[in-house]
Design a protein that fits this description.
The structure holds two protein chains of two kinds.
Chain A lengths: L4 H9 L18 E6 L3 H10 L8 E6 L7 H9 L4 E6 L10 H18 L7 E5 L5 H17 L11
Parallel strand pairs in A: 1-2, 1-3, 3-4
Chain B lengths: L3 E6 L3 H4 L4 H10 L3 E7 L5 H13 L4 E6 L2 H14 L7 E5 L1 H5 L5 H21 L6 E4 L3 E5 L3 H12 L3 E5 L14 E2 L4 E2 H14 L3 E4 L2 E9 L2 E8 L14 H5 L20 E2 L11 E2 L5 H4 L6 H5 L12 E7 L1 E4 L3 E3 L16 E3 H8 L20 E8 L15 H15 L4 E6 L9 H10 L4 E4 L2 E7 L2 E8 L4 E7 L1 E6 L1 E3 L3 H8 L26 E3 L9 H19 L3 E4 L4 E3 L9 H5 L5 E7 L5 E8 L9 H5 L5 E3 L4 H9 L4
Classes of the chains: A alpha/beta, B alpha/beta.
Bound molecules: flavin-adenine dinucleotide, iron/sulfur cluster (SF4) (3 copies) and FE2/S2 (inorganic) cluster.
């Protein structure tokens, strides 16, 4: 099964297929994959657009109905595919379109952090934030600040990166 | 084999100014599975849509990706166009290269690269897309309204006048709720029973309304459009169809002492066989079996039976269970008042002349225990000085509730005003924390009480009340002047905080709707869906949602009704097909999924063999209830539940396309 975490780890350890980082990307902005909910953060990101705000080009957004749908394995997969940072963002507490998806996701993530850390992913590379549909400016600052934060981190030391 | 068409929209210069659309199309054409990639000036225009339709037809496309503006703008436009060519609408995907690329970046090279990435993601996703059929749920066009207060009555009448059958269930022997207990109502001072009784009668006579009073909901199952409800009709001990409401029975009942009248809030007595008040609807008595001598003393008394002309009293009647099928439900179960006894310092229950606001309504009412003459419960004397205390229990997180009960400022102003009208030369004092009088005409109403009726408003709390020589001595603080005050009053009226009806939490659980920590039902969305509960097909009205006055209760009753009439205006209820579905082969029946579902959409399904033996129990998603959030997908350890439109494999395909 392609998303078996044990297999993931094994693959990644002696892996040739998955490579990330490397000299050629040094000057590039670090790739961020953002998992966002359809109702708040996706609209917030759209609002940044309609307001013609500017931010770093390195983010790739994956839209899901709700943060409650975000499987921790998506995060693992994102790192496997070379992401330097993963952003998970949804509605503010109490504002989830489905009332409680963001709580589930928060709870799930808290448990998942340790595993990520065990896998060797620097926890600083995973960012959780609440961005509402009216917070285009927050989207911009979260992306920019997260990008800068990642740039300051030591090279990916996790098992997904090729040394 | 996937046959995917790609369209890169210029959006005039909105996209083409920052993104090299030609290059994006060229790159797209190289992706395996893409049969053609073109760029076009305005995809959403009619000619643009026609290009899309033509390619779907000519190239026999199995999927389409548009690199264009946000899916929130035109996803529907393109889906509709696809449907016209016979392509399932869920084979359309959009890469958002305007709001999330061209409008937010300046570097053309980097913006173009990002656009290509986003496009690739969607191409890989669409390869994994599956046709999704929108869900159509049949509708039983009949509504159930729970609670016959003003909000439930309004909802029932509006629905019934819209031509839809309504079942109204009220647990008390009469409909009317709290409003029928009120005397005159703020802010216009129209008499409550004058405006309420006609509505109650209209309910009773309405050809589309079936009324079950003295009845309670026993069980609810099903989902939007298809609820099955069981109603327990408690035995009144009266054969209702024969009763003429003449009153011969209750006038003869010997049990006319020691049973307190609920309607008069304990200020008078009632008999064992009784109607709660003379204008009760229906005007049919009920025997309170907990006090009736017939039941208590082994059949000794049957005076009412003997007195009854049509002989409609039947002591052996049993509770009945009635089953009904309805398509929508309104929960309008209203409110109760907090226990005043929580406030020992006010002496409620200890001093007879310390009463609640609702009791004061009964004293003011012409149909009340004193026929509208304000008299002290202790000695029947007319009070000359009354102290009103606001916020008893409200806005008091320590002993009471933190929220504001919303109606007390207004009804206290009303009480002081009516008292001044009834007892000339009298004096009112009102202790308050803040005055909240925010609706139309409300501020003026309170000002009128202060300025025209001479009520003295004191900002501060009362610390103690004690009896002295037939007077109630009220000690408190006037925080505006900084003085301690002491008032010798004849009567004290407490504006007690409102709380949800007792048992509202149980009701919510039975209905499968959410409620807050106090027991008020919560709205599906506090601002945008205030009439809907968290469960599809169940609507909310009145004080059961939180403190509100009569106008607001009426509005919310009408809102719930209009939602239901809207729902019933179609032949079927249609929902987007992007909902969860269970792989019943691999599901192990752990029901972790059920725990996270906020919509109670997951039920247990028994898989049986041919002989009817249960082989296993698995999860089943009810398409009428599932909102498509996907929380269950992550809760499932055996990966047996997935969300259509956002399948695991689709998301992984998106991520994989980004491999660097
Ligand atoms: C002292 C006082 C004075 C007031 N004066 C005014 C005023 O002057 N003007 C004004 O606008 N507002 C006034 N109000 C507020 C007003 O009473 C409410 O806004 C209004 O009554 C709310 O109506 P409702 O239908 O939501 O609730 P309710 O009147 O409480 O009706 C709910 C009904 O549902 C029934 N029910 C409950 N549970 C069940 C169940 N499980 N099954 C079946 N039936 C059930 C109850 O028996 C009741 O009949 C006053 C309130 C108080 C306390
Ligand atoms: S039988 Fe019961 S209700 Fe009837 S008169 Fe006697 S005590 Fe009253
Ligand atoms: S969590 Fe998965 S295995 Fe458990 S009941 Fe739900 S679908 Fe079945
Ligand atoms: S998708 Fe959401 S609403 Fe639907 S069954 Fe799963 S948890 Fe419940
Ligand atoms: S819908 Fe935004 S977090 Fe649930």
């Amino acid at each position: 099964m392609e998303n078996n975490i044990v297999e993931d780890v094994q693959n990644a350890r002696g892996d040739k297929e998955y490579s990330a980082g490397g000299a050629k990307d040094k000057d590039k902005e670090p790739r961020i994959i953002a998992f966002v909910c359809n109702w708040c953060t996706y609209n917030g990101a759209d609002l940044a657009g309609t307001s013609r705000m500017k931010y770093a080009e390195n983010v790739r957004v994956i839209k899901l109905p709700c943060t409650g749908r975000i499987d921790p394995l998506f995060v693992v997969e994102a790192f496997k595919k070379g992401a330097k940072g993963v952003l998970v963002s949804g509605c503010h507490p109490g504002d989830c379109h489905y009332t409680s998806g963001n709580y589930h996701s928060r709870r799930k993530y808290t448990a998942f952090r340790d595993l990520l850390s065990y896998l060797g992913v620097d926890i600083n590379r995973v960012e959780f934030s609440w961005i509402s549909a009216s917070e285009g400016n927050k989207w911009v600052s979260v992306i920019n600040e997260f990008t800068n934060k990642i740039k300051l981190l030591p090279d990916n030391s996790d098992i997904f990166s090729k040394k | 084999m996937a046959r995917i068409g790609v369209f890169v929209c210029w959006c005039g210069s909105n996209i083409a100014g920052t993104v090299d659309v030609k290059r994006v199309a060229e790159e797209a054409a190289k992706i395996p599975g893409v049969v053609e990639a073109v760029d076009y000036k305005y995809m959403c225009s009619d000619p643009g849509q026609n290009t899309l339709r033509k390619m779907i037809k000519d190239k026999n496309l199995t999927g389409v990706v548009l690199a264009a503006c946000s899916p929130h703008m035109h996803e529907n436009t393109f889906r509709k166009a696809a449907v016209k060519e016979g392509l399932n609408p869920y084979f359309i995907e959009i890469a958002n290269i305007r709001e999330q690329v061209s409008w937010v970046h300046e570097d053309k090279e980097k913006a173009t690269e990002k656009a290509i990435d986003l496009l690739k993601m969607m191409v890989e996703k669409v390869k994994k897309n599956k046709a999704i059929e929108d869900v159509r749920v049949p509708l039983t066009k009949k509504a159930l309204v729970i609670g016959g207060g003003i909000s439930g009555i309004q909802a029932a009448l509006d629905i019934a006048n819209g031509g839809v059958e309504v079942i109204l269930v009220e647990k008390e022997p009469s409909i009317g709720g709290k409003m029928i207990q009120l005397d005159e109502t703020f802010p216009t001072l129209d008499c409550s029973s004058c405006i309420m009784t006609p509505k109650m009668v209209e309910v009773y006579q309405h050809p589309n309304i079936k009324l079950y009073t003295y009845s309670e909901l026993e069980e609810v199952s099903g989902y939007i459009g298809n609820f099955n409800v069981k109603i327990k009709k408690k035995a009144r001990s009266i054969v209702e169809k024969d009763c003429t409401g003449c009153g011969d029975c209750w006038n003869i009942c010997p049990m006319h002492k020691n049973v307190k009248s609920e309607f008069n809030v304990n200020l008078s007595e009632r008999t064992a066989i009784y109607v709660p008040f003379p204008q009760a609807v229906p005007l049919i008595p009920v025997i309170d079996r907990s006090v009736c001598l017939h039941y208590k003393k082994g059949g000794k008394c049957q005076k009412c039976y003997d007195a009854c002309g049509p002989k409609c009293i039947n002591f052996d009647l049993q509770d009945e269970i009635i089953e009904e099928k309805v398509g929508a439900i309104v929960a309008a179960t209203g409110y109760d008042l907090m226990e005043n006894s929580l406030y020992g310092e006010y002496g409620y229950g200890q001093f007879k002349d310390v009463i609640s606001g609702l009791q004061f309504e009964r004293l003011l009412s012409a149909s009340g225990p004193t026929e509208g003459v304000v008299k002290r419960p202790s000695d029947g004397k007319t009070p000359e000085t009354i102290v009103f205390i606001q916020c008893v229990g409200s806005r008091d997180p320590e002993k009471g509730v933190p929220y504001c009960s919303k109606v007390c400022c207004m009804y206290t102003a009303k009480h002081a005003k009516l008292f001044a009208h009834k007892v000339h030369g009298s004096q009112s004092y009102v202790f308050y924390i803040d005055i909240r009088a925010t609706s139309k005409g409300y501020e003026e109403f309170v000002r009128g009480t202060m300025e025209n009726e001479g009520a003295i408003y004191l900002r501060g709390r009362v610390s103690k009340i004690y009896e002295d020589n037939g007077k109630l001595i009220v000690k408190g603080a006037d925080t505006l002047s900084g003085n301690q005050v002491e008032i010798a009053a004849d009567m004290v009226v407490l504006a007690t905080g409102v709380i949800p009806k007792k048992g509202s939490d149980k009701m919510a659980q039975m209905l499968g709707i959410s409620y807050d920590k106090y027991g008020f039902y919560t709205e599906s969305h506090p601002k945008l869906r205030p009439a809907e509960s968290s469960t599809a097909g169940i609507y909310l009205a009145g004080m059961a949602q939180g403190p509100r006055d009569i106008p607001e209760s009426v509005v919310s009753g009408s809102a719930a009704a209009s939602k239901i009439l809207g729902l019933f205006s179609k032949s079927e209820y249609e929902v987007e097909g992007t909902i969860a579905s269970v792989n019943k082969t691999t599901c192990v029946g752990c029901f972790y999924c059920r725990r996270v579902c906020a919509y109670s959409a997951i039920s247990k399904e028994e898989i049986k063999d041919r002989n009817g033996n249960v082989l296993k129990v698995v999860a089943n998603v009810n398409s009428g209830l599932c909102a498509g959030c996907g929380a269950c997908v992550n809760a499932c350890f055996s990966k047996s539940i997935d969300l259509k439109g956002y399948l695991d494999e689709q998301i992984f395909a998106e991520i994989k396309s980004l491999a660097v």
